[in-house]
Amino acid sequence: MLNRSLSEHATGCFYGSDRLAARLWTELLSPPKGIAQDRWHALQDDCYQLLADTLDARYPRRYRLNDVHRLMDRLCDAKLFVGPELPWLDYLIDQMLLRNGDLVCYRETEVQAYARLSAELDPTLLVAWHLSVWLNENPQPQERDICRVVLAQAPFFAPPPNPALPHAEGHVHLGGVAADSVILGDYLLNADGFSGVKEGDRDADWLKQEKQHLNQLLKRMRHLLIQLLELSVVEQDIATRLNDPMAIKEKLPDWELLAARHAEEPVGSALWVCRQFAQAMMRGCANRWLWLMLYLCCLYRDAKVMPQSRVAILCWLQMLNDVRRRLIMDGQGLTRFVERYFQGPLRSGSKGALQDNVRRLLVDKGDVVEVKSGPGTFSPKFVTTFVAAVARQSKQHGVVPPYIFGEHEVSFQGAAGQYLQSLERWQFCGHFSRSQKKKRAYGKEPRADMEKLWKSADDLFAGLSRQSGWSLPEFLGGHLNEHFHFQPARWFRGLDVAGDENDLRIEWFSPMLRWLRQGFVSRPDGEQASSGFHLSIHAGEDYAHPVSGMRHIDETVRFCEMRDGDRLGHALALGIEPAQWVERQGEMIVPLDEHLDNLVWLWHYATTLSGRLPLAQQVLPIIERRISRIFPFTLWLEPPELDIDHQEGDGDAKPLPGLVSVSPSELHRAWCLRRNCHYLWQKLYGDQPRSERERCAVPDAAVIIHPSDTAARIYRYRHAHIAAQSKLPLVMVRMGSEWDGQALYAGHAKPVRGIIDDVDTRPELDFMHALQDYLLDQYDQMGLIIETNPTSNVYIARLENHKEHPIFRWSPPNESLLENGGRFNLFGLRRGPVRVLVNTDDPGIMPTTLRTEFSLLREAAMELGVSRTVAEEWLERLRRYGIEQFNRNHLTVFDEKKS
Predict the structure, then answer these.
(1) Reduced to 3 states, what is the DSSP secondary structure of residue 790?
(2) Which of 221, 226, 430, 762 is the most exposed, fewest CB within 10 Å of its CB?
(3) Using CA atoms, how far apart are residues 425 and 414, in angstroms rounded to an integer?
(4) Per-residue three-class SS string for 577-634
(5) Whole-angstrom distance, CA of residue 77 vs CA of residue 86
């Protein structure tokens, strides 16, 4: 979770406090009577106190109160509202932004501070404020210059790209790209009127309250924006308009009429900028949000504007950044991310803008991207829309055919060839979802709807072989064009399992992935030979215990049969040191079955490494003792019908009397059997697999059916308990000494209210660290790649800044740290760096760009003591490797036929 300073938090509170926004809204609706000067002094005092209280409530007991009071007192000085200045904006602009010709961009030396600030307030406000100062300079800029500068600004105000250094985005979710301005624009600038966030009857209580609050804020913002757009600088009557039901308008102004109304305004004035904004709305200009913010800034700075209008503008900015904060990830864990942000009410209800998404992904002409979305997204309709956006961003346009409906007659030469080449700049990775819409009861193992999952796999397989619907003008006739081979299925290059990995384990999905990756399958006539899908699977991003995350990764590698070129998404469990993670987490609450899986998995690798690592020999008896204590509570050797009392949730969980223990080796064999699809195994009814699907999904059918095999029995009964929703205790794991562990094993600590206590000792945490190194080395030898997403990881995981990111452990700029006994090879188990890719993940939810990620890593590396030249050489290798991997996996969709 991103760590910020007091001044950064103070800035966020000043420009995004819901309490201050409510106070200013009250001021607009019910302005007090009396002397004007006294009124504004009283409002300034109220703002000061509200801001101090808000900051202390938002970050309780984190800062000294006198520091908070002094800072807020400086922000709310006597000039607030009565003067044309807003606090701190000029200081922040000087610190973080620079002019580079016509471009205003962040300083690469201050990129981390800029990234932190962007999570608190919309950086468009900084740029707009800076431009508003420029509009008042002497000599005043001309109209063409102002328009050119506004239109030239890049997404996220990133520095201009180097055309000689293209970048490849290899891990980005299409649903997480849409920027805050695009989403909020859907609600605030919708010409059809205000519809708000739709409320559902089945919404949870928190979601109902969130939607109600959002709808209130959005409605206020829209009403206030309408008044500000129609405001006359001379006649300012916002309070009267807001209180008059007849004056309240639901629809935005007619943009053509608004532009005509201000046609004679002086260039650079607030109302002239309002005209430019209206014209930008008419044209659908990409930078219309910047025009809007520039108008508000110019209006605030206008000497003729009364304090009441400044109150209205600041109130609108307060509400804007308050709502925007609900789009920006801020909190711990994937469950929070999936439920509150990625599928949050604002983002899920917004249409977004695909063209703006592509503009942010393909910044320069040489950039390429692999986008992730659900398998069902890939269709002729989606691809047609997407490639049209890619072509426009590439500044390529469809070729005019020789006659009507004659696209299939267009040859591959000239402009047509350039157009088709631009459509090769992207590829698609389909991800199945782990996240469950219907939440499970606590303590119960979630269960996937395997019939639905296999149907989605069948639909994908059939859809990629279907040729109908693709012969469209956007593809120059597609299959009808005799000048090239058109194979649209080649855009679909990867498979993933995304979502909240705490919901469903990879075992539910791995049989489908193995089947979808099978070779030698039937293809449509005329289709050329091609390589199969690569895997790019989320694993080890968020976990309840370090071993849980490591095991999730190992399950992904083993059960999915990953191979050279496959990728692990995030994989933080292989990078964050376990002792550091546990120290920040404190108590670890883990379901009993997951805890047992962790111990068995840890035992297996302790046995594997016992011959070369003394630490492994030390922890083996400790782990075996813990397994023997925990296993009886699972009841996996008994069918669920014999577990009536336990299913009803007895407060003090007790194992069944007389239950025999099982060796860790048998438990590990049972764990390995989970690569089999239990759903399809049941449908075999004791028979052997016949079809290719069954052989891929149930490779161990002959073992599972064996009645006397202990591992097979555990496999079968475990699934029976999952189907019966047998409730298991929770295990609360703490860091402790070996003496504490012995006391638990001796029975001095009994399960209470369904919670079992357990202890991770320091040697075990050290062994987990060593095991991370061992697995990193083994996976690297297999040719696997880790997809890093630095900003996303800092926002979601137990990291406080970018220099803590494990990329510096996986592939350090200075490889001497990987020498035997070095900082990142303490146990001598690694032979070198692992392969990594740098990506953004969800650049709309965690505001960033791909090039910003590289800049953040550069600054973090230098903070760690790496020289500038070494850091830049390291990042250049990572950039080139990203391009190489895209080209390795990409298949030509439009292949020219040779005569």
Answers:
(1) helix
(2) 762
(3) 18
(4) CHHHHHHHHCCEEEEHHHHHHHHHHHHHHHHHHCCCCHHHHHHHHHHHHHHHHHHHHH
(5) 10
Q: Residue 489: name the closest of 378, 615, 401, 323 by CA.
A: 378
What's the pLDDT tens digit per position in 442-474? Answer: 545 678 899 999 999 999 999 998 888 998 988
Q: What single DSSP character describes residue 440?
A: P
Q: Residue 138 has what pLDDT?
A: 87
Q: Give the span between the Cα atoms of 826 and 528, in whole angstroms.
A: 49
Q: How far apart (Å, rounded) are the C-alpha atoms in residues 627 and 666?
A: 12
Residues pairing with 372 in the sheet: 173, 429
Calculate the alpha carbon distances from 272 to 59, 296, 449 in Å: 42, 12, 58
Spans of all domains in the chain: 95-153+180-351, 374-539
395 backbone φψ class: left, alpha, beta (φ>0; ψ -120 to 50): left
Q: Residue 868's closest CA among 70, 109, 37?
A: 109
> pLDDT (tens digit, 9 = 90+) per residue, 93-107?
999 999 999 999 999
Task: Give the pLDDT mean for 324-353.
Answer: 79
Beta carbons within 8 Å of 524's beta carbon, 6+ residues apart = 465, 467
Contact between residue 635 and residue 655 where contact means Cβ atoms under 8 Å apart: yes
Report in angstroms the alpha-carbon separations of 38 from 29, 42, 225, 755, 899: 18, 6, 27, 61, 86
* Strand ranges (E), 88-196: 97-100, 103-106, 168-173
- Residue closest to 593 by CA, chosen among 632, 556, 619: 632
Q: Report whether 242 contacts 26 (CB < 8 A).
A: no
From the number of C-beta atoms within 10 Å of its C-beta (0-12, 13-18, 19+), residue 200 rates as: exposed
> Which of these, 281, 277, 253, 254, lies nearest to 265 by C-alpha position?
277
**pLDDT exceeds cutoff 90 at 873:** yes
pLDDT over 80 (residue 778): yes
Give 698-715 pLDDT, tens digit per residue.
Answer: 999 999 999 889 999 999
**At which residue do the structure tokens 């496959």 appear?**
566
Average pLDDT estimate for 669-692: 94
Instruction: Please give the C-alpha separations between residue 459 and each of 77, 464, 560, in angstroms, as whole numbers.
Output: 63, 9, 20
Cα–Cα nearest to 175, from 892, 896, 842, 773: 842
Q: What is the rounded CA–CA span in Å between residue 842 and residue 179?
A: 10
The single residue listed with the structure tokens 């405001």 is 231
Three-state DSSP class for residue 350:
coil
Number of H helices, E strands in the chain: 38, 15
Helix residue ranges per DSSP H, 326-480 = 334-336, 345-348, 354-361, 380-393, 414-422, 450-465
Cα separation of 38 and 35, whole Å?
5
DSSP character at residue 894: E
